[in-house]
Specification:
single chain; alpha+beta; five-stranded antiparallel β-sheet; 2 helices
């Protein structure tokens, strides 16, 4: 983050990455990476770019404690529809600066997939 001059989290988009391997194993609490959305800096080797492709997108309203059940639903959906989850899930809080109660929190989850 220092390299791309983004030092403050206020007014920045950020979230976590969780490997699809961990999702398949049911390990929903051991995140792999923390990320922040930044403007790409030319020639920077440390800036990760989310791969292009098709993504499952789901929004979850409520406390973070319910996210494991959301991942179970994503796993069931992908199995029922012949999809293989790839890479990482990307969790991002959508409205955290505008809520006063965690039950109103909205989490966006994106996971890349391929048809099998």
């Amino acid at each position: 983050m220092q390299e791309v001059k983004k030092y403050r989290l206020f007014n920045q988009r950020y979230g976590i990455m969780l490997s699809t391997k961990k999702i398949e194993e049911g390990d929903f609490d051991t995140y792999d990476y923390y990320y922040s959305i930044v403007e790409e800096k030319q020639g920077s080797k440390s800036v990760f770019t989310k791969p292009a492709g098709d993504y499952i997108q789901i929004f979850s309203k409520g406390n973070w404690d319910q996210l494991p059940s959301v991942y179970v639903k994503i796993k069931e959906f992908s199995k029922d529809n012949g999809l293989r989850l790839l890479g990482y899930s990307y969790e991002e809080g959508i409205n955290e600066m505008a809520i006063s109660n965690l039950d109103d929190y909205i989490t966006q989850i994106l996971i890349r997939y391929e048809i099998i």
